[in-house]
UniProtKB/TrEMBL annotation:
This protein's UniProt keywords: DNA-binding, Transcription, Transcription regulation
Domain HTH tetR-type as annotated: residue spans: 17-77
Protein name per UniProt: Putative TetR family transcriptional regulator
GO molecular function: DNA-binding transcription factor activity; transcription cis-regulatory region binding
Transmembrane segments: none
Residues of the DNA-binding region: 40-59
């Protein structure tokens, strides 16, 4: 398989953008219904209410349109739209709201995530898309962790990137197993229990003070000073 890429000549008119979006939405339906290998361009075109010739105006083939579907999914996961938090200074509430929004996005995209995992096993290009998404999460969460450390709200002895990778991987794999795994996963734990549990593990891992205001330990602050000296 060749490397997935977006259409070489993106549409410049509003009508062209709408047509391309119809094809991407139709492709998602067909991929989720038939799987990647069995999906046919003629079925995607039919689902979109377009001719196969119209498909080739926007995409060179199946890999390109699948990459476009994956891009929409990745954007939803990266920007799921966090719900309103009454007190934005409440780290526990912000973490829980962020994880809840991410889990909702995983639930919306569960079938596509399962399909992407399968395709990534056989196509290095799609493996790279997964890796790039993970790296984006790692960097973003590392910045958030470093900010909490600077504010004295997280254990300053922790390496932000290493901690981000560990906590992000925990949430990502738990979410994948919950929504893509067997139904028994969802029967054993409610969505709210999963959200609260992951949020608590995240804040515990960072040693965020509890809502009563218990401070981060002096050992953590000393660790930060030592890191600064290095």
């Amino acid at each position: 398989m060749s490397r997935p890429r977006t259409a070489p000549t993106p549409p410049v008119t509003a009508r062209g953008v709408r047509t391309r979006d119809r094809l991407v939405a139709a492709a998602r339906v067909v991929f989720e219904r038939d799987g990647y290998l069995a999906a046919r361009l003629v079925d995607i075109s039919k689902e979109a209410g377009l001719s196969t010739g119209s498909f080739y105006t926007y995409f060179a083939g199946k890999e390109e349109v699948f990459a476009a579907v994956v891009e929409v999914t990745q954007n939803d996961l990266l920007h799921p739209g966090m719900g309103r938090v009454e007190d934005e200074g409440d780290v526990h509430a912000v973490v829980e709201a962020s994880i809840r929004a991410y889990l909702h996005a995983c639930r919306r995209n569960a079938r596509l995530l399962a399909l992407l995992e399968q395709v990534a096993h056989v196509d290095p290009a799609f493996r790279e898309l997964e890796r790039a998404r993970d790296e984006t999460f790692y960097r973003r969460n590392a910045r958030a962790i470093a900010d909490l450390q600077d504010r004295g709200l997280a254990d300053a002895s922790l390496d932000p990137m290493l901690t981000s990778k560990a906590l992000s991987a925990m949430v990502g794999r738990m979410a994948y197993g919950y929504f893509v795994g067997p139904p028994s996963e969802r029967r054993s734990l409610s969505f709210d229990e999963l959200t609260a549990g992951l949020a608590r593990m995240w804040t515990n891992g960072l040693r965020v003070p509890d809502r009563a205001g218990e401070p981060v330990s002096s050992r953590a602050r000393e660790g930060s000073e030592g890191r600064d000296r290095r």
